[in-house]
Amino acid sequence: MVRITRIYTRTGDKGTTRLGDNSQTAKTDIRLEAYGTVDELNAVVGLALASGGLASPLAEVLRRVQNELFDLGADLCTPLPDQETRLRIEAGQVSALEAQIDQLNEGLPSLRSFVLPGGTPGNAWLHLARTVCRRAERRAWELAQGARVNPQALVYLNRLSDLLFVMARRTATAQEVLWVPGQSRP
After folding, report:
1. What is the rounded CA–CA span in Å between residue 39 and residue 34?
2. Does the pTM exceed 0.85?
């Protein structure tokens, strides 16, 4: 269990911070950008939940995802290999996302074009969460170019963006608004 006794520590006042393995790194390190973007994603998911209008099953899944995003942040915050067993994203968490995607996607109409975000606040926030998730994935892949990263963490982000897209489709108003390319618009 995590225990936070002080809010400020002063350890970051000179542009450095400590990682999950207690090593020190610059606050500009791509690792911080990766797990910081995951933290931002968690905040956007929180906004989607706070916007109201999300059906109970979707809200329950998003609450689970928020906890898993903290797991993911801890995973990305701790370099591989570490001396101790640390919290890592596992294949079962990815499988759970895939099962949820399949369940939510069932019965949705096939797409003929890209979907425009909006219609309801929940829909717009879920689309924003999807785009932040894609950015987190890009940052994590950038980190993986120079450091060992748990492969399941990378796959998790990819599947999560798919889940957020399907959830956004589920929250769309009666009919989704599709993108109409410039030459086809009246």
Report:
1. 9
2. yes
